[in-house]
Protein backbone atom coordinates (compact mmCIF):
# COMPACT_ATOMS: atom_id res chain seq x y z
CA UNK A 1 0.00 0.00 0.00
CA UNK A 2 1.18 3.49 -0.76
CA UNK A 3 1.84 5.76 2.20
CA UNK A 4 -1.61 7.27 1.90
CA UNK A 5 -1.41 9.44 5.00
CA UNK A 6 1.26 11.53 3.34
CA UNK A 7 -0.03 11.12 -0.20
CA UNK A 8 -3.19 12.94 0.92
CA UNK A 9 -2.27 16.54 0.18
CA UNK A 10 -4.70 19.42 0.43
CA UNK A 11 -5.68 18.87 -3.18
CA UNK A 12 -6.84 15.26 -2.83
CA UNK A 13 -10.38 15.96 -3.86
CA UNK A 14 -11.85 18.45 -6.29
CA UNK A 15 -15.48 19.50 -6.08
CA UNK A 16 -16.31 17.29 -9.06
CA UNK A 17 -13.85 14.50 -8.35
CA UNK A 18 -14.41 11.15 -10.00
CA UNK A 19 -12.28 8.30 -8.75
CA UNK A 20 -11.54 5.78 -11.48
CA UNK A 21 -10.07 2.30 -11.44
CA UNK A 22 -9.63 0.97 -14.93
CA UNK A 23 -6.84 -1.10 -16.44
CA UNK A 24 -4.85 0.71 -19.10
CA UNK A 25 -6.02 4.23 -18.21
CA UNK A 26 -4.18 7.13 -16.67
CA UNK A 27 -6.17 6.70 -13.45
CA UNK A 28 -4.63 3.28 -12.86
CA UNK A 29 -1.55 3.17 -10.66
CA UNK A 30 1.09 0.60 -9.89
CA UNK A 31 -0.06 -1.14 -6.74
CA UNK A 32 2.83 -3.53 -6.51
CA UNK A 33 4.09 -1.73 -3.40
CA UNK A 34 1.25 -2.95 -1.17
CA UNK A 35 2.05 -3.55 2.47
CA UNK A 36 0.39 -5.75 5.03
CA UNK A 37 -3.33 -5.21 5.40
CA UNK A 38 -4.44 -5.25 1.76
CA UNK A 39 -5.32 -8.14 -0.49
CA UNK A 40 -4.18 -6.79 -3.86
CA UNK A 41 -0.83 -8.53 -3.45
CA UNK A 42 -2.72 -11.76 -4.10
CA UNK A 43 -4.37 -10.40 -7.24
CA UNK A 44 -2.73 -13.04 -9.38
CA UNK A 45 -4.54 -15.75 -7.41
CA UNK A 46 -7.94 -14.09 -7.66
CA UNK A 47 -10.49 -14.88 -10.34
CA UNK A 48 -10.59 -12.15 -12.96
CA UNK A 49 -13.72 -10.00 -12.91
CA UNK A 50 -15.02 -7.63 -15.55
CA UNK A 51 -17.64 -4.91 -15.38
CA UNK A 52 -18.37 -1.55 -13.82
CA UNK A 53 -19.35 -0.23 -10.42
CA UNK A 54 -20.64 3.24 -9.53
CA UNK A 55 -20.80 5.00 -6.18
CA UNK A 56 -21.21 8.48 -4.79
CA UNK A 57 -21.61 10.27 -1.49
CA UNK A 58 -19.60 11.57 1.42
CA UNK A 59 -16.41 13.59 0.95
CA UNK A 60 -15.42 12.42 4.44
CA UNK A 61 -15.46 8.79 3.34
CA UNK A 62 -13.79 9.67 0.01
CA UNK A 63 -10.14 9.37 1.20
CA UNK A 64 -10.79 5.76 2.19
CA UNK A 65 -12.55 5.02 -1.10
CA UNK A 66 -9.93 6.85 -3.16
CA UNK A 67 -7.21 4.62 -1.75
CA UNK A 68 -9.26 1.45 -2.12
CA UNK A 69 -10.23 2.27 -5.71
CA UNK A 70 -6.60 2.82 -6.68
CA UNK A 71 -5.42 -0.35 -4.96
CA UNK A 72 -8.31 -2.32 -6.47
CA UNK A 73 -7.14 -1.34 -9.96
CA UNK A 74 -4.15 -3.60 -9.41
CA UNK A 75 -6.30 -6.48 -8.23
CA UNK A 76 -8.99 -6.29 -10.91
CA UNK A 77 -7.83 -4.11 -13.80
CA UNK A 78 -10.86 -4.98 -15.95
CA UNK A 79 -13.35 -3.45 -13.50
CA UNK A 80 -14.22 0.23 -13.94
CA UNK A 81 -15.03 1.88 -10.61
CA UNK A 82 -16.28 5.46 -10.48
CA UNK A 83 -17.02 7.27 -7.22
CA UNK A 84 -18.44 10.78 -7.13
CA UNK A 85 -18.30 13.13 -4.15
CA UNK A 86 -21.71 14.81 -3.87
CA UNK A 87 -21.92 14.74 -0.08
CA UNK A 88 -23.87 12.20 1.95
CA UNK A 89 -27.26 13.66 1.07
CA UNK A 90 -26.42 14.10 -2.60
CA UNK A 91 -25.12 10.55 -2.73
CA UNK A 92 -28.33 9.16 -1.28
CA UNK A 93 -30.34 11.11 -3.88
CA UNK A 94 -28.46 9.30 -6.65
CA UNK A 95 -28.78 5.98 -4.81
CA UNK A 96 -32.55 6.44 -4.56
CA UNK A 97 -32.71 7.19 -8.29
CA UNK A 98 -30.91 3.92 -8.98
CA UNK A 99 -27.88 5.70 -10.48
CA UNK A 100 -25.33 4.08 -8.15
CA UNK A 101 -24.51 0.67 -6.72
CA UNK A 102 -23.33 2.04 -3.36
CA UNK A 103 -23.52 5.28 -1.41
CA UNK A 104 -20.89 6.52 1.04
CA UNK A 105 -22.13 8.29 4.15
CA UNK A 106 -20.69 10.06 7.17
CA UNK A 107 -23.94 9.61 9.09
CA UNK A 108 -26.60 6.91 9.31
CA UNK A 109 -29.29 6.94 6.65
CA UNK A 110 -32.28 9.16 7.51
CA UNK A 111 -35.79 7.77 7.90
CA UNK A 112 -37.03 9.71 4.89
CA UNK A 113 -34.15 8.41 2.74
CA UNK A 114 -34.88 4.84 3.82
CA UNK A 115 -38.56 5.38 3.00
CA UNK A 116 -37.69 6.71 -0.45
CA UNK A 117 -35.50 3.68 -1.13
CA UNK A 118 -38.32 1.38 -0.05
CA UNK A 119 -40.72 3.23 -2.34
CA UNK A 120 -38.24 2.84 -5.20
CA UNK A 121 -37.96 -0.89 -4.47
CA UNK A 122 -34.27 -0.69 -3.60
CA UNK A 123 -33.16 -2.97 -0.78
CA UNK A 124 -29.77 -2.18 0.71
CA UNK A 125 -27.24 -3.24 3.31
CA UNK A 126 -25.38 -0.88 5.64
CA UNK A 127 -21.65 -1.52 6.11
CA UNK A 128 -19.51 0.37 8.62
CA UNK A 129 -16.05 1.22 7.31
CA UNK A 130 -14.22 3.13 10.04
CA UNK A 131 -14.46 5.62 12.88
CA UNK A 132 -14.01 9.37 12.45
CA UNK A 133 -13.55 12.17 14.92
CA UNK A 134 -15.08 15.34 13.51
CA UNK A 135 -12.23 17.81 14.02
CA UNK A 136 -12.48 21.49 14.96
CA UNK A 137 -9.53 23.31 13.43
CA UNK A 138 -7.99 26.77 13.20
CA UNK A 139 -4.96 28.17 11.39
CA UNK A 140 -1.59 27.55 12.98
CA UNK A 141 -1.28 31.34 13.05
CA UNK A 142 -4.06 31.35 15.64
CA UNK A 143 -2.07 31.43 18.89
CA UNK A 144 -4.93 31.93 21.34
CA UNK A 145 -7.36 29.02 20.89
CA UNK A 146 -6.24 25.70 22.32
CA UNK A 147 -9.43 24.30 23.83
CA UNK A 148 -13.17 24.92 23.46
CA UNK A 149 -16.12 23.42 25.28
CA UNK A 150 -19.20 22.05 23.58
CA UNK A 151 -21.03 25.11 24.90
CA UNK A 152 -18.38 27.38 23.35
CA UNK A 153 -18.94 25.66 20.03
CA UNK A 154 -22.67 26.20 20.25
CA UNK A 155 -22.20 29.87 21.18
CA UNK A 156 -19.89 30.35 18.22
CA UNK A 157 -21.77 28.42 15.57
CA UNK A 158 -25.47 29.05 16.31
CA UNK A 159 -26.94 32.02 14.47
CA UNK A 160 -28.23 34.55 17.01
CA UNK A 161 -28.23 37.76 14.99
CA UNK A 162 -24.92 39.05 16.36
CA UNK A 163 -21.47 39.41 14.83
CA UNK A 164 -19.35 36.73 16.49
CA UNK A 165 -16.00 37.80 17.91
CA UNK A 166 -13.30 35.73 19.54
CA UNK A 167 -13.53 37.97 22.60
CA UNK A 168 -17.13 36.78 23.08
CA UNK A 169 -15.72 33.42 24.17
CA UNK A 170 -12.78 34.74 26.18
CA UNK A 171 -12.27 38.48 26.84
CA UNK A 172 -8.51 37.92 26.63
CA UNK A 173 -8.83 36.77 23.03
CA UNK A 174 -8.74 39.23 20.09
CA UNK A 175 -11.66 41.55 19.48
CA UNK A 176 -11.80 40.24 15.91
CA UNK A 177 -14.65 38.78 13.88
CA UNK A 178 -14.63 34.98 13.70
CA UNK A 179 -14.51 33.64 10.14
CA UNK A 180 -16.45 30.40 9.75
CA UNK A 181 -15.96 27.50 7.32
CA UNK A 182 -18.30 24.51 7.29
CA UNK A 183 -19.33 21.58 5.09
CA UNK A 184 -22.31 22.17 2.82
CA UNK A 185 -25.84 21.24 3.79
CA UNK A 186 -25.74 18.05 1.66
CA UNK A 187 -22.86 16.81 3.82
CA UNK A 188 -23.34 14.18 6.48
CA UNK A 189 -20.71 16.05 8.49
CA UNK A 190 -22.97 19.11 8.46
CA UNK A 191 -25.90 16.93 9.58
CA UNK A 192 -23.88 15.40 12.38
CA UNK A 193 -22.63 18.77 13.65
CA UNK A 194 -26.16 20.11 13.41
CA UNK A 195 -27.45 17.27 15.57
CA UNK A 196 -24.82 17.13 18.32
CA UNK A 197 -23.64 20.77 18.54
CA UNK A 198 -26.28 23.06 17.05
CA UNK A 199 -29.11 20.85 18.33
CA UNK A 200 -31.11 21.67 15.18
CA UNK A 201 -30.70 25.44 15.49
CA UNK A 202 -29.51 27.49 12.49
CA UNK A 203 -25.82 27.57 11.61
CA UNK A 204 -24.22 31.02 11.74
CA UNK A 205 -25.23 32.77 8.53
CA UNK A 206 -21.79 34.20 7.76
CA UNK A 207 -20.21 30.75 7.32
CA UNK A 208 -18.64 29.78 4.02
CA UNK A 209 -20.13 26.40 3.08
CA UNK A 210 -18.61 23.86 0.70
CA UNK A 211 -19.10 20.18 -0.10
CA UNK A 212 -15.37 20.11 -0.91
CA UNK A 213 -13.40 19.74 2.31
CA UNK A 214 -10.27 21.01 0.60
CA UNK A 215 -11.95 24.38 0.07
CA UNK A 216 -12.49 24.52 3.82
CA UNK A 217 -8.89 23.50 4.52
CA UNK A 218 -7.50 26.22 2.25
CA UNK A 219 -9.75 28.92 3.69
CA UNK A 220 -8.81 28.11 7.27
CA UNK A 221 -5.11 27.85 6.46
CA UNK A 222 -5.14 31.40 5.07
CA UNK A 223 -6.89 33.23 7.91
CA UNK A 224 -5.80 33.34 11.58
CA UNK A 225 -9.38 34.31 12.55
CA UNK A 226 -10.93 31.32 10.81
CA UNK A 227 -12.42 28.21 12.36
CA UNK A 228 -13.97 25.19 10.70
CA UNK A 229 -14.72 21.50 10.99
CA UNK A 230 -14.41 18.35 8.89
CA UNK A 231 -13.33 14.71 9.11
CA UNK A 232 -10.22 13.77 11.08
CA UNK A 233 -8.29 12.56 8.01
CA UNK A 234 -8.37 16.04 6.48
CA UNK A 235 -6.79 17.45 9.63
CA UNK A 236 -4.15 14.69 9.65
CA UNK A 237 -3.29 15.38 6.00
CA UNK A 238 -2.88 19.11 6.71
CA UNK A 239 -1.60 19.19 10.28
CA UNK A 240 1.51 21.15 9.27
CA UNK A 241 -0.68 24.16 8.46
CA UNK A 242 -3.71 23.59 10.70
CA UNK A 243 -4.15 23.33 14.46
CA UNK A 244 -6.74 21.02 15.95
CA UNK A 245 -8.69 22.38 18.93
CA UNK A 246 -9.29 20.09 21.88
CA UNK A 247 -12.92 19.80 22.99
CA UNK A 248 -13.49 19.83 26.73
CA UNK A 249 -9.81 18.98 27.06
CA UNK A 250 -9.88 15.93 24.76
CA UNK A 251 -7.87 15.82 21.53
CA UNK A 252 -9.05 13.67 18.63
CA UNK A 253 -6.67 10.76 18.05
CA UNK A 254 -6.95 7.04 17.37
CA UNK A 255 -7.51 6.13 21.01
CA UNK A 256 -10.02 8.85 21.95
CA UNK A 257 -12.01 8.41 18.75
CA UNK A 258 -12.28 4.62 19.00
CA UNK A 259 -13.12 4.70 22.72
CA UNK A 260 -15.69 7.46 22.33
CA UNK A 261 -13.84 9.67 24.82
CA UNK A 262 -13.73 12.32 22.09
CA UNK A 263 -17.41 13.00 22.63
CA UNK A 264 -19.76 13.97 21.10
CA UNK A 265 -17.75 14.30 17.88
CA UNK A 266 -16.72 10.65 17.37
CA UNK A 267 -18.81 8.83 14.77
CA UNK A 268 -18.80 5.82 12.43
CA UNK A 269 -18.43 6.09 8.64
CA UNK A 270 -20.56 3.97 6.31
CA UNK A 271 -21.22 2.73 2.85
CA UNK A 272 -24.68 1.54 1.80
CA UNK A 273 -24.83 -1.04 -0.99
CA UNK A 274 -27.71 -2.11 -3.21
CA UNK A 275 -28.58 -5.73 -2.49
CA UNK A 276 -29.60 -6.26 -6.12
CA UNK A 277 -26.27 -4.91 -7.38
CA UNK A 278 -24.36 -7.18 -5.00
CA UNK A 279 -26.38 -10.22 -6.02
CA UNK A 280 -26.46 -9.61 -9.77
CA UNK A 281 -23.28 -7.69 -10.59
CA UNK A 282 -20.11 -9.70 -10.01
CA UNK A 283 -18.00 -6.55 -10.22
CA UNK A 284 -20.07 -4.78 -7.54
CA UNK A 285 -19.83 -7.79 -5.23
CA UNK A 286 -16.10 -8.21 -5.78
CA UNK A 287 -15.41 -4.52 -5.21
CA UNK A 288 -17.46 -4.46 -2.01
CA UNK A 289 -15.72 -7.58 -0.75
CA UNK A 290 -12.35 -5.96 -1.47
CA UNK A 291 -13.51 -2.78 0.27
CA UNK A 292 -14.48 -4.60 3.46
CA UNK A 293 -11.27 -6.65 3.44
CA UNK A 294 -9.14 -3.50 3.17
CA UNK A 295 -11.19 -0.72 4.79
CA UNK A 296 -9.46 -1.02 8.17
CA UNK A 297 -5.94 -0.78 6.78
CA UNK A 298 -6.88 2.05 4.41
CA UNK A 299 -8.71 3.94 7.16
CA UNK A 300 -5.57 3.89 9.27
CA UNK A 301 -3.40 4.81 6.29
CA UNK A 302 -5.37 7.96 5.43
CA UNK A 303 -5.88 9.13 9.01
CA UNK A 304 -9.11 7.57 10.28
CA UNK A 305 -9.53 4.79 12.84
CA UNK A 306 -10.22 1.18 11.92
CA UNK A 307 -13.03 -0.86 13.44
CA UNK A 308 -12.30 -3.99 15.47
CA UNK A 309 -11.52 -6.88 13.10
CA UNK A 310 -14.62 -8.77 14.21
CA UNK A 311 -16.75 -5.96 12.75
CA UNK A 312 -15.19 -6.44 9.32
CA UNK A 313 -15.53 -10.22 9.65
CA UNK A 314 -19.25 -9.84 10.37
CA UNK A 315 -19.66 -7.41 7.47
CA UNK A 316 -18.03 -9.93 5.12
CA UNK A 317 -20.35 -12.65 6.42
CA UNK A 318 -23.34 -10.37 5.81
CA UNK A 319 -22.07 -9.69 2.31
CA UNK A 320 -21.60 -13.40 1.55
CA UNK A 321 -25.15 -14.09 2.74
CA UNK A 322 -26.50 -11.80 0.03
CA UNK A 323 -25.08 -14.14 -2.61
CA UNK A 324 -26.87 -17.17 -1.22
TrEMBL record:
<keyword id="KW-0732">Signal</keyword>
<dbReference type="InterPro" id="IPR011862">
    <property type="entry name" value="Phos-bd"/>
</dbReference>
<keyword id="KW-0813">Transport</keyword>
<dbReference type="Pfam" id="PF12849">
    <property type="entry name" value="PBP_like_2"/>
</dbReference>
<comment type="function">
    <text>Involved in the system for phosphate transport across the cytoplasmic membrane.</text>
</comment>
<comment type="function">
    <text>Part of the ABC transporter complex PstSACB involved in phosphate import.</text>
</comment>
<feature type="domain" description="PBP">
    <location>
        <begin position="45"/>
        <end position="292"/>
    </location>
</feature>
<dbReference type="InterPro" id="IPR050811">
    <property type="entry name" value="Phosphate_ABC_transporter"/>
</dbReference>
<protein>
    <recommendedName>
        <fullName>Phosphate-binding protein</fullName>
    </recommendedName>
</protein>
<keyword id="KW-0472">Membrane</keyword>
<keyword id="KW-1003">Cell membrane</keyword>
<feature type="region of interest" description="Disordered">
    <location>
        <begin position="24"/>
        <end position="57"/>
    </location>
</feature>
<dbReference type="InterPro" id="IPR024370">
    <property type="entry name" value="PBP_domain"/>
</dbReference>
<feature type="signal peptide">
    <location>
        <begin position="1"/>
        <end position="21"/>
    </location>
</feature>
<keyword id="KW-0592">Phosphate transport</keyword>
<keyword id="KW-0449">Lipoprotein</keyword>
<feature type="compositionally biased region" description="Polar residues">
    <location>
        <begin position="30"/>
        <end position="42"/>
    </location>
</feature>
<comment type="similarity">
    <text>Belongs to the PstS family.</text>
</comment>
<keyword id="KW-0564">Palmitate</keyword>
<comment type="subunit">
    <text>The complex is composed of two ATP-binding proteins (PstB), two transmembrane proteins (PstC and PstA) and a solute-binding protein (PstS).</text>
</comment>
